TrEMBL record:
Protein name per Swiss-Prot or TrEMBL: Molybdopterin molybdenumtransferase
Cofactor(s) listed: Mg(2+)
Organism: Streptomyces lydicus
Positions of the MoaB/Mog domain: 211-354
GO cellular component: cytosol
Length: 438
């Protein structure tokens, strides 16, 4: 076939930010669920409905340190006329054997211990003499001491109604009740509930494994001295940290030289441990833009990566595709540090969160008053300027300029200011939308 194919026409046009994002997300499904230990499932999305197998609490138990009694026995107790009960034993949390209580009897009981048969109320130790036969001052000391002698006495000086200070079986949840629904994001409290109902493992979408690889023959590891023309590789660190922050398990491969064969073999090696691949650099139209050269030329078997221009600044050149036998998503980000980070926030972070099956994949956006004017924003492009957002004042202040090499300004920003495609300048005090970087 002669003339431009559908494919080349497709690549020639300029894509909007939304179109590129939609394309990425339309090709990403949540990872297949796996069974994980509770703590490994933190932050993950549950894929099963969880039903309570046993009631919580599993048995009636005391909410106080005190005495398990028959409410009827202490109904008339007062400060001046305390009721004396015979203490027939001790029940600590975890006790299996419980003495039965008859009329005129009590059992010393600790918080969380099962209420013994016959008792229907707990009198807190503070409402008694603590079994000392002395005043309330000795009460607490007595209670924390060794088991009380059976046959001793306790004087109760306040009545307790039936059920007082007893946490009834099933008062939290009853068996068969739904505990958590599929789709729930597991935070600390959800993990606590799962543990309380006896679940050791749960089925969730796992955290994606993200492989981060930067390209550039000029790149040197931080910690090493720079030679002429060299710079430190900051992108692979920034992107790996960003991937972790998004919820992924991130592997930093580090910098690969601008050499097609090296890039190809490195990617091939990394494919086995990746749920998503992120590269930085080498996607423009320069002579050594090896990522684009290599990945645009993959065979049909190896996968397809499309390189496109976006109506966006920074971050105009972007590559996206699915590679390897398992068709792993790959996002090829531009090399300028601000471009790669902004691209990550806009496209890779949502992709990671979509792989996790999270309901909310995007950073929150909020309107804010821009404290300074923005002059000459490029027409036809959505610009993302770095900003310092003040939640209390509802304002945002640009940090640094538009240059995509301004790493320090990025580090001092907590937001991205969005200047829409058709806006070429923002007067001071005007309202803008701001992406909160958290
Ligand atoms: P490229 O997209 O490869 O042409 O790179 C664009 C610019 O970003 C160049 O100035 C590179 O030196 C710089 N750059 C590329 N990769 C990195 C990196 N990993 N860390 C810091 N700067 C980079
Ligand atoms: Mg490069």
């Amino acid at each position: 076939m002669n003339g431009p194919t559908d494919q080349t026409r497709h690549q020639d046009r300029v894509w909007s930010v939304a179109e590129h994002l939609d394309d990425v997300l339309s090709k990403i499904d949540p990872l297949d669920p796996i069974e994980l230990q509770l703590l490994d499932a933190q932050g993950c999305v549950l894929v099963e409905d969880i039903t309570v197998p046993v009631a919580l609490p599993p048995f009636d138990n005391s909410s106080m340190d005190g005495y398990a009694v028959r409410a009827a026995d202490v109904a008339d107790a007062t400060e001046s006329a305390p009721v004396a009960l015979t203490v027939i034993g001790d029940v600590a949390a975890g006790s299996g054997e419980l003495p039965g209580i008859g009329p005129g009897q009590a059992v010393r009981i600790m918080t969380g211990a099962p209420v013994p048969p016959g008792a229907d109320a707990v009198v807190p130790v503070e409402w008694t003499d603590g079994g000392t036969g002395q005043g309330p001052a000795a009460t607490m000391r007595a209670h924390s001491a060794a088991p009380q002698d059976a046959g001793g006495e306790v004087r109760v000086h306040r009545p307790a109604a039936a059920g007082a200070h007893i946490r009834a079986r099933g008062s939290d949840v009853t068996e068969g009740e739904p505990a958590l629904q599929a789709g729930t994001v597991l935070g600390p409290s959800q993990i606590g509930l799962l543990a309380a109902i006896g679940r050791g493992t749960v089925r969730v979408h796992p955290r994606p494994r993200v492989v981060v690889l930067s390209t550039g023959s000029e790149l040197v590891q931080p910690g090493e001295a720079l030679g002429p023309g060299q710079i430190h590789d900051s992108n692979s660190f920034q992107l790996t940290a960003a991937a972790r922050d998004a919820g992924a398990i991130a592997y930093r491969v580090g910098a690969v030289a601008d050499d097609a064969e090296t890039l190809r073999s490195t990617l091939e090696d990394q494919l086995i441990r990746a749920d998503i691949l992120v590269t930085s650099g080498g996607v423009s139209v320069g002579a050594y833009d090896v990522v684009k050269e290599t990945l645009a030329a993959l065979s049909a078997e190896e996968g397809t990566v499309e390189f496109r221009r976006l109506a966006m600044q920074p971050g105009k050149p972007q590559g996206f595709g699915l590679i390897g036998p398992d068709r792993i998503p790959l996002l090829a980000l531009p090399g300028n540090p601000v471009s790669s980070y902004v691209s990550f926030e806009l496209f890779v972070r949502p992709a990671i969160r979509a792989l996790m099956g999270l309901p909310e994949v995007h950073r929150p956006t909020t309107p804010a008053r821009c404290t300074e004017a923005v002059a000459s924003s490029p027409k036809g492009k959505r610009q993302f300027l770095r900003g310092s957002y003040d939640a209390e004042a509802g304002t945002v202040t640009p940090v640094g300029g538009a240059g995509s090499h301004l790493i320090k300004a990025m580090a001092h920003a907590n937001a991205l200011i969005i200047v829409p495609e058709d806006t070429t300048e923002v007067p001071a005090g005007a309202e803008v939308d701001v992406v909160l970087l958290g």
